[in-house]
C-alpha cells in the first residue's frame, strides 16, 4: 500500500516476501526434515538433506537477486515525519520482524545447544509469553493508531481528535472489566487495546456508511455493503484488523483465564468446574477392523439445567500400539468446554482432562480454516483487499505523476462520495 501510494518501502516489500518464503521452508524443514524429534518427520530417510538444499536455494537466490537489483528498489520518496502513516507501517514491519525473530530463536536455540555439545533444553511457552506478549500488545496498539494517521505528516491536534472516540471506548471497557471481571493488568491492557482498535474501525465504517446514505439515499445496510464492495483495499484491511483483534481476544482469554483439571469418573459421577457440572453416564465399546473404540457418554449442566449430551471417543490401534482421542466439546462465544478422555479403566471408570477456555471461539472465527462452521476473516479480508475493483474511467493526471486508472478505493471513499460532508477516513495500516 505504501509503495502504491508513495513509492516507498520497495526494499521492505521484497525483503519481507523473501523472509516469509524462507521461514515457511524452514518450518517445513524443521518439522519434516528431522533436526528435531517430531512424529511428522520422515525418520531415517535422506529427505532432510533435500529439504535443506531446497531451503538454501530458496533463501540465497532471492537475496542474491535482491542485491543485484538493489539500485532499482530505492524509494522515490523520503519519510517526511515519524507522525505519519508511512512511519506507522515502518514500525509495524519492525515489530513483526521482532516477533518472528523471537519465535525463530526459540526454535533454533535448542538445536544449536545440542550441536554444541550442551544439555538437551526446551524453550517452553513462558519464554514466548514474556517476550512476544508485550510486542503483540504494541502491535495491536499500532494497528489502531495507524489507520487514523494521514499520509506524509500529521499534527497533534488532528490526531487527538481522531483518537478521542476509540480512546474513550477503550477507557470505558477497561473500567467496566476492572470493576466486574478482572483486575489483572495484562488482561485489562489487552482488552482495552482490542476495544480501542475495534471502536476505531467501527467508527470509520459508520462514517463511510453515513456519507454514502446521505448522498445516494441508500438504506444503511445496503450503503454499508456497497461501501465495502466498492472500496476493497481499505475495508478489506479493516476486516483483517478485526480478525487480528479476534485472535488477540482468544489469546487473552485462553492464556489468562483458562482452567484445566484431570479427574477420574465412575459411571454416575459428576464433577463441577467454572459453574459447569459434568456427569459421566457410561462407556460403550465398538470393535472395528483396525481399532477398538471406547465411546463415553456425558451430560453437561449449568445451574441445574441440561445444556447438552456429549460423547467423547478414545480409539486404540493395536497394530501400531497407539491411541487417539476425540474430545467432547461445547463451543460458545463466551467460552469453550472440553472433556478429553485420557484412560479407560477396567472397572468402567474413565480419566478425563477437563478444560475451560474463555473467548477461544473468537480465534476459531478469525482463522482461515476449512471448516464451514468457522469464519476465516483473515483470508476473507485479504482476498477483498487484494482484489480491488476498477472503474472504466481515467482519473485526472496529477502534476509529476503518470496517468492511472481511477480505482474504487479512491472514488468510493467517503471524501469522494460526499466531498462536502467532511467525512473522510484513511485506509488501515
Structure explained in plain terms:
The protein contains 13 helices and eleven strands. The C terminus is likely disordered. The radius of gyration is 26 Å and the shape is globular. It has a five-stranded antiparallel sheet with strand order 2-3-4-5-6, with no helix packed on it. Helix 9 runs antiparallel to helix 10.
Along the chain, the helix and strand elements come as HHHHHHHHHEEEEEEEEEHHEEHH
Unreliably modeled segments? 369-375, 390-429
Largest sheet: 5 strands, antiparallel
Mean pLDDT: 79
Amino- and carboxy-terminal Cα gap: 9 Å
Largest sheet, order of strands side by side?
2-3-4-5-6
Based on helices, strands and strand pairing, what is the structural class?
A: alpha+beta
In short:
With 429 residues, this protein is of the alpha+beta class. Helix content is 51%, strand content 19%. The protein has 13 helices and eleven strands.
